[in-house]
Amino acid sequence: MRPMRLLLALALGSVWETWAQSIGTTTSLFPSQENANTPALFPMPPCGQFNLEEATIDQMQQAMSNGTLTSQQLVLCYMQRTYQTQEYISSLLQLNPDVLSIAANMDAERKSSIFRGPLHGIPFTVKENIATKDNMETTAGSWVLIGSIVPRDAHVVARLREAGAVLFGKASLSEWADMRSSNYSEGYSPRGGQARSPYNLTVNPGGSSSGSAAAVGANAIAFSLGTETDGSVINPAERNAVVGFKPTVGLTSRAGVIPESEHQDSVGTFGRTVRDAVYALDAIYGIDPRDNYTLAQDSKTPNGGYMQYMTGKDDLKDATFGLPWNSFWTFVDDEQKTILLDLLALIESAGATIINETEITNYEKIVSPTVWNWDYGTTRGYPNESEYTVVKVDFYNNIKTYLSELENTNVRSLEDIVQYNYDNDGSEGGNPWPLGISAFYSGQDGFLASLETKGVKNETYVQALEFTQRSTREGIDSALNYKGQRLSGLLVPPDIGQTYQTAAPAGYPMVTLPAGVHSNTGMPFGLAIMQTAFGEAELVKWASAIEDLQLTSGNTIRRMLPRWHGYLERNIPVLNV
Ligand SMILES: *[C@@H]1O[C@H](CO)[C@@H](O)[C@H](O)[C@H]1NC(C)=O
Ligand SMILES: *[C@@H]1O[C@H](CO)[C@@H](O)[C@H](O)[C@H]1NC(C)=O
Ligand SMILES: *[C@@H]1O[C@H](CO)[C@@H](O)[C@H](O)[C@H]1NC(C)=O
Ligand SMILES: *[C@@H]1O[C@H](CO)[C@@H](O)[C@H](O)[C@H]1NC(C)=O
Ligand SMILES: *[C@@H]1O[C@H](CO)[C@@H](O)[C@H](O)[C@H]1NC(C)=O
Ligand SMILES: *[C@@H]1O[C@H](CO)[C@@H](O)[C@H](O)[C@H]1NC(C)=O
Ligand SMILES: *[C@@H]1O[C@H](CO)[C@@H](O)[C@H](O)[C@H]1NC(C)=O
């Protein structure tokens, strides 16, 4: 990313020189190949006196309040880390040219005793499909929207600015949040290049919020936002060993987010700890008149935010979890099953009850027995029972509404985007490979499928919406009600796409925690909890309890630092293993 290097060089300039001297770093920004096999590959330099690697938001806050760190220093340290890692993982799509002055303002406020809260001065990124009304682009990774002007900050961005968080930049993503193609390279966008997981650069980094999760996993940012329609927060979170929070549809406003489906889109958060992800969630959730789905949360959200539900392992004695075995667990490979069952045994030994006899009712009709497949209804011969039938129609309509508010662009419809992609095969891969590009092997078949519907909400659509919502909600709710007892949550393996695929049409929330690593690829996987609509308080409670257990058990099953396997490889597409 040459422009990015230039920008960084300019931004760092003389500030960098004096500052680098002051922190006395001796770490090379560009590690040589010699240390390829040493454990200390891409070591993270300290941030002045402060050890930023794996630092929590609370620790950053404390260091800023006791005077050992400023927000500007934090920004410079994350710039340095980005400079060190960007050539490998491309987690940042655009650096905010105003980030240092925003941080300076936050430092000045703190000096004059204005303290906005736990995110004051903390740097973050947002997935690049989330609008920012500033000196950055909002394009979903596509050249077609470059130069377009958004009407305002997305609601979630405005809320984070109010909370004092410092917008560092826009995270790379799978273009159009994966709406455009059925066979594509996860994490790739024409503007952002190929985002990669720092755990193994050759394989699918998880998506579509790939850069958001990879940057948090690589310690290149404090926390990040992503968006999910079906898996796009949970999947990259678990593949980068971070905590991912996908809220109930309607808890976080989608106003100002380049859409996929109004019925399923949700803005979620990534952190290295549950607490960090919940700080971000607390800052962004709430009613927004520009997204009327958020009206549904009225009276269902707590006064004072979700942080109050954070707890420790001792509370696990009050928990009863369900394992939907035949619905999900049965698909897990042996190695992962062994590691996750060890973790489940640990949770039981802390006093929790685990019930292995509760299922997602009707799961056979909801999800494929083999792979993630959001058109499984059609595969079974019933397009009127398929999630994709809904998403295809929604996208056509929702993108038109989003585009209608943009200035400085002639792009007004999906038709315009599709034509642009055909006209720019070399960069956007409108046609299938080899006419187009290898990242989009099947061209833009997802867009063409949406285009074919013309956004008409015919009987097939109406039935599919009703079926997918009802069957998934009933399925999860009945699994949560075991013989009349309300369970604390469903523990599920999020490496199995059918888990988040069941939560997606339901609009139900999920959280994933780092839980282990595959020995054949070095790629992490998680343990997730599912809940009913607006069950976030329970998710926070049990995720924090399990995390506390992981951290204090002396058991190493949790997050491990990235190992940068395959860091000299540049394969596109990434491998789906
Ligand atoms: C300031 O806080 C940081 C983070 O907790 C800590 O590491 C450091 O020792 C503290 N320094 C002083 C002078 O209190
Ligand atoms: C997807 O694309 C890859 C090449 O990137 C190809 O090998 C594979 O067969 C394609 N899969 C399908 C289902 O078309
Ligand atoms: C939101 O408003 C639109 C019209 O602007 C309406 O069609 C839709 O049903 C409303 N949705 C909710 C959840 O209130
Ligand atoms: C759950 O029950 C299934 C049989 O339905 C069994 O195969 C599996 O081993 C059980 N899992 C646990 C963790 O007990
Ligand atoms: C609804 O539209 C879809 C896509 O355009 C089409 O395949 C389907 O047959 C239509 N259904 C009805 C009942 O017309
Ligand atoms: C879908 O269509 C089939 C007929 O092709 C019908 O039997 C079935 O009940 C429909 N499903 C729903 C959810 O309406
Ligand atoms: C990284 O992934 C590739 C593709 O699956 C695999 O061949 C390689 O062994 C992995 N690297 C490590 C160190 O696990």
UniProtKB/TrEMBL annotation:
InterPro entries given in the database record: Amidase_dom, AS_sf
Position of the signal peptide: 1-20
Domain of life: Eukaryota
Pfam families assigned to the protein according to its UniProt record, in alphabetical order: Amidase (PF01425)
Domain Amidase stretches: 74-376
Keywords: Signal
Protein name, entry field: Amidase domain-containing protein
Organism: Endocarpon pusillum (strain Z07020 / HMAS-L-300199) (Lichen-forming fungus)
